[in-house]
Amino acid sequence: MKYIDEFRDGDLARGLAAAIRAGTEATREYRFMEFCGGHTHAISRYGIIDLLPESVRLIHGPGCPVCVLPIGRIDQAVRLAVERGVILATYGDTLRVPASHLLSLLRAKALGADVRMVYSTTDALCVARTHPDREVVFLAIGFETTTPPTAAAVLKARDEGLGNFSILCDHVLTPAAMHAILAAPDGVALDGFVGPAHVSTVIGSAPYETFADVYGKPVVIAGFEPLDVMRAIHMLILQVNAGRAAVENEFTRAVTREGNRKAQALMAQVFELRDDFEWRGLGTIPHSALRLRAEFCDFDAELRFDVRYQPVPDNKACACGEILRGIKRPQDCRIFGTACTPENPIGSCMVSSEGACAAHYTYGRFREAAA
Ligand code: SF4
Questions:
Q1: How many domains are contained in the chain?
Q2: What are the residues facing 285 on neighbouring strands?
Q3: What is the pLDDT at residue 262?
Q4: Measured in angstroms, how far is the CA atom of residue 66 from the centroid of ligand 1?
Q5: 26 class by beta-carbon count within 10 Å (0-12 exposed, 13-18 middle, 19+ buried)
Q6: Quick one: pLDDT at residue 186?
Q7: 286, part of any domain
Q8: 21, 95, 181, 369 from 304: Cα distances, Å
Q9: Residue 332: exposure state from Cβ atoms within 10 A (0-12, 13-18, ≥19)
Q10: Domain assignment of residue 269, yes or no
Q11: What pLDDT, on a 0 to 100 scale, did the predictor assign at position 2?
Q12: Residue numbers in the chain where pLDDT is lower than 50
């Protein structure tokens, strides 16, 4: 298949691996964070780490949408479904994120709450149209990739006069999280970023320039196929060796410097910055998430149902916070693969296939056990 087969070619991968080995300097370590959960999944799935020399270390970042949602945000959705009796619609992975009181949206559904999995905002609107006598809340999560469809759904609901539809807005912003990682006084030491693929198709490459210019960290935007990731790693190594810090774009088949202006305009029309937002693992980050603009407040479920955010500490045994900051690996968590598995996740990083723990469990832990 075009754009797939040529980016999974084994011979090319071996050639790239040789170029990476030849390009690394023996006296130093290269620590690159792959921000995006899609890259974390690809790295585990295709065994990319096995092709890299020991001096190249890949550090998982916080770019998995369900992983960074703190418990209190899931609690809000559970309260809407259980206490307010709304139809709560959201994407599949979000259903299994652990909430307070041993609940999740899926467990709330098992107890009788009307929770529905949808594949798109169009589906959520359809639920609202089909049940005009019920309140329908769409739990809107994700980075800049999933934000434009939510904005389009709000505009559609307004235009149709769909008064029983609202959203619980948990959309978050990639550059703000990257700032938080680089600015953290006790943060992980990094030599550069493998930049997100889908997010960058929307925001473009320009927003990353500050990380090169201000923090001196190279960023190479990469596609999701294994050769994309390996080529990005090679490009990062060449920058580090040359003492350069620039934004480079490996994913030129989909990403431009400007990004998708239409999608950006849609987001700007419907959303504005929250003053601050608590992320799992990263703490409260100013201007790192979105809320509906005042003119769309009728569609804001937080206001309509008065469900305020209450912070809740993570399970004490769970190391998701440190993993999302890049200072621990999944196998450093003492309940990884025992009490916490994809079938019974204790923390959010074990829920989605993009979560570091789920990816490592699915593709990596058996290799480690055998080593
Ligand atoms: S293994 Fe489970 S409990 Fe441990 S850090 Fe990962 S998600 Fe959290």
A1: 1
A2: 277
A3: 98
A4: 13
A5: exposed
A6: 87
A7: yes
A8: 57, 22, 34, 51
A9: exposed
A10: yes
A11: 79
A12: none
